[in-house]
Give the backbone structure.
Amino acid sequence: MAAVSAPSRHLLTLLALLPLALLHLWLAADLAPFELWTMLASAEHSFEFLQLQLSALPRLSMALLTGAALGLSGSLLQQITQNRLVSPMTIGASSGAWLGMVLATLLVPTFAADHGQWAALLGALLAVGLVLLIAGRSGIGGLPLVLGGMAINLLFGALAAGLVLINNQYTQGLFVWGAGDLAQIDWHWVQWLWPKLLLALPLLILAPRPLSLLQLGGDAAQGRGLALWPVMLVLFLAALWLCSVSITAVGLIGFIGLLTPNMAKMLGARTARDELLYSALLGALLLLSTDALALLANRLSGQLVPSGAAAALIGAPVLLWLARRHLAAEDPRGLQLPRGAEHFGWRSALWVAVFALLALTVALGLARGINGWRFEWPSALVWSLRWPRVLTAASAGAGLAISGLLLQRLLRNPLASPDILGLSAGATLAVMLALIIFGGALLGAVAPLAAFVGSLAVLAVLMLLGRRHRYSPALMALLGISLGALLNAALQFVLAKGSGDSFALLGWLAGSTYRATPAQALGLTLGVLLFGALALLFQRALTLIGIGDGVAASRGLNVPRLRLALLVLVALLCALVTSLLGPVAFLGLLAPHIAVMLGARRVLPQLLLAASLGAVLMLLADWVGRTLIFPLQIPVGIVASVLCGGYFVFLLIRGRLT
Amino acid sequence: MKRCLLGLLLLWLTPAWASNAPRVAALSWEATEHLLMLDVTPLTVADAGDYRAWVVRPTLPEGVPSSGSRLEPNLELLAELQPELIVIPPVLEDIRPLLERIAPVQVYQGFSQQHDNQQVQREAFLDLARSLGREVLAEQRLQAMDAELAQWRERLQAHYAEHLPAVTVIRFSSPTAALINGPNSMPQHALALLGLQPALDLPPSPWGITQVPITTLGRIEQGVVLHIEPFPQEAQLFASPLWQAMPFVREQRFAAMPSTWTYGGVFSLQYLAEAIGEALLKLPSESGKAPQQPLE
């Protein structure tokens, strides 16, 4: 394929666009091709004619415009950062736009109905701004940018989910936009969008020179008189503008910006200009074909299938496949968390104990009732309702902290945790699939099994991909990202159906201790204690593997077998927690780090401290969830994700600024 | 007549019973509606605020507290309120053991593709009345509804000179997508009670609604389309030439009906029928004739 010269490659792609555009028109206008012809020939303005003119043609234009804009923006971002994993979606723009839209709809509904796009734009810019702040000047070109984007995606996603869940009746109108629908009723959006995309023309002319200099490396570029940072910043903002206005116009459509530059490169685009141009072209082609698929599905099923869902279904597997080809090199840079104390002394232990006791007292005794706040020992009835939730929350927190710690030690990756690696997303996706196949009635029985199978499957993929690439942080994060994106798209798709099941699903996904029975609470606790004890037995192995495989092997350990056994342990633990609670983000990542920051640097104290911290954090999150907006309750998963995620982002930004 | 008088007497007496009125917690909006129609003010209602905003009728007195969300009602609050009976939808069946520690529980079927929703709600209402000892009142309320529906039928027949239009009830979800109320949805049951046919044939769906692109509505050649308010972006949609070109818009066979809950209990049929009837009476009498349709 690389043998084809650039002009003929572009020409061929353009030629492929033509029949595809005709197919798209035919599907969108709901007409047979020959009818299309006769209608264009006749002078009469029937409804079908108007449908062609005001719905099908604008939709076609929209697919081409946004596809090209997303492709161009993705290529620009990837070339600036020299990072094949960067795209509008991976650096937080989509989740920022979604949160902005949700907030605007709830706070200023009348404004949101007509000018919601500005809220989306603002949200996208804010999210990416935060990600840039986290990644910092040096991190922009590498993994820190992607990881920061992932953190913001998880955090903003949890915030938006919480808001939607609490205000379910008021946010229903958003879901079609959230699922990414290209349908048009007039030329309004096309006319809104195209002048804003004109920026692409000067970009195509001016950007290639600095970009090709960048390919030589930052120092070389500076050596040739390129004012590196201002140029990069301007290009970055331009790319962001292109994708933000597109998202605003058509809603959340992921993957296009990520896939097209990679495809362009694979199909032989070598120079900067070639890649930019060809990405734009491919983006248009890709979005047009996914939208044609969505239209086809719509016609076959008789109900609306959003384009974003189709894009994600195609995009996620392709992304994984791409990952295998492009991620040979290990990127040693991660995100730096503050180091904290050197030793875990008695004083710190005392503080932790006091804090834990306080949290337990508050969680058990302080509650809101019909007449306001009360602090008392609960009655027998209330106690029987309260303790399973409290115990479930605490055990889940401990379990997540342990699995996060195991992963971080085993993969020698400070950012490994069940949610970042996609274990939680895999479990959740499997449960969602089970819900679709078996219906809601069997969910209670099927969910734990599905969650287990889901997280095991993700783990298996991780092991297969990971061994070849020595468990590089980039690869691990990538899998998490693609699964997370797939999960999000599936969720948006289910929500967009507009039926009452949507909120039941959202409620489960939010991660709640509400439905925990005493038996389940005890089972979870026993499971976590058992797995925790098992992990303690392996503490020597964990220490040695944490130093290096070679060191561990030289001390007589069977490293591959041990690693496999411990990873299965992690999957079991994660499945156990996720099946009961749904996904909880950030906790598994953060608890081991806080333990380190408090000075617990050896495996044994870190494990114990992280587990207790995880338990305490979840206790508090559950309590906040139960009391904050009484009598309504916020699921503990959302509270924990938002609290821990906020703290995590704060730590990262503080670390960057000092 | 005698029954009617008795009913009035009961109505008049109700406030006097308020002190020993049944303490019932309603964890579904259908149950709330049914209790209110039995002149029982629920002790607490799940999502009471949203009920007042979205269901509206029958009116829930201001003092009734919310007991949390319908998916996760606040158990500790329920325990504190000490109800004598808790009425739940099937979606809460799995926490029934917990609720039974607080008070006896009755579960009533909600909206489902599997059964006739109108029939199920009617039976649920009667059954609830039986367990509260208010069968007589229940029968009266149902008869009053039937009488009301008969009046609407007559009014529509008078307006449309016996050539009733076919009608489809929709709710916009965005300027480019709409939810159509199809078979077994409460709006379609209300249409049937008014002697009206659906204007668009749809396959049954789990929630009685099907989401379609807005252009699909263009296929409605005959018949009237009613949309349930509110729709914040209506100015944008209604001004577009494509919307103007929809056959039912061009021929003035389109009207709005006030916000009405479409997943309600048995009396939501009456409110829906009223809303539909009022909207239809506002349209010119020759709208959407469907001459082939016999009455009843």
